[in-house]
Specification:
Length: 375
Amino acid sequence: MSLLSCFLRFESAQESYRPGEVIKGTVTLNVHGSSTLLIKALSIKCSGYASCQWEKPQTAKKESKKPKPKEFYVSREDYISTQSYIIGSEQANPSALSPGTHIYSFMVQLPSNAPSSFDGALGFIRYELQVNANYIDRIDCLTSTPLMVEQSKDLRRLAADIQTATENEKYEAKPCLKFWRRPLQLYVSLPQSGYVVGECISVHVKVSNHGNVKLKDITTKLNRIVTYKGAIKERKPMETSETTAIACNVHGLFGQNSNVTQHLQQLFVPKTSPSLDATECKCLSVRYEVEVTVCARNAKRFVQTVVPIVVGTVSLSSDEKLPVLNTATNHAATITVARSMDELNLPSTWEMRRDNVTALQQAAQLSASTSSLGK
């Protein structure tokens, strides 16, 4: 009996692909043995979708003899599901493959609205290439390869305030019965609110401690918050969130008893997926925040605040030209942005008026010559 093996080879090996990009490659089939192999069709399938699922929490009630079945919140959104036949078709008659190596080319285009690949505890966004063989009595998956898709998020295209400094201030919550106690005051500022992987976040922390509380440490975290959205059958959609600290630094404050304490903490953005809005994916969204916590030696005394940030793929300090998307041709063209009216090199009013007069004179001469020819 013949044995069939298969593997995919891409034309350009790269770690990730952009939405709208065309993926080219070859499918190599090896038919082992000495006899031919009957096959109806050989197809390559590209699939990409988002999905999430979590169990509905059970309310605490009296034990019953018949436990209620578990219910799950689920959601799914498909971005691409294409199947191209390399050999034959689903209705074709079986054809014989001779022993040896057979190589076929393929080409797949990713959708332009595809969000970045992501894997979380309760959901994911995945893309995959799969090669299937249709036999007379069954369909087998010969090989499958995951695709990493990274959506381009240019921070320079976002709101202008993302380039300016952002800050937040928080007072320690104190019990009503201890109204005389002076609360801790925390002030946090960032030079900007947009970053890319590998960049450093400089976090300026200022603590006002006029109550002379013995402080312990300052903890700075970079949190990734994933919000999943799902429903049970046709009921109202529900949401649940998952928070993960992807970077953390702790600065000790032992022996510092001044009324005002300042510290500059640095956090490096690790490899992670870019921010994802709820409008880009109906199953999940991804956002980031910088969390700062000041703890006292007394475990009941602390103050905490967060500053939201955006993680993109193109830095605010990038020298690349801004591409503009032409909706008519769906191609990207480069433009030059002028910082002042002088850089536009517009013609003066006198030049525009002179050009208009010249155009009128030429039109009059052309009209006169036409009328003379008619006579």
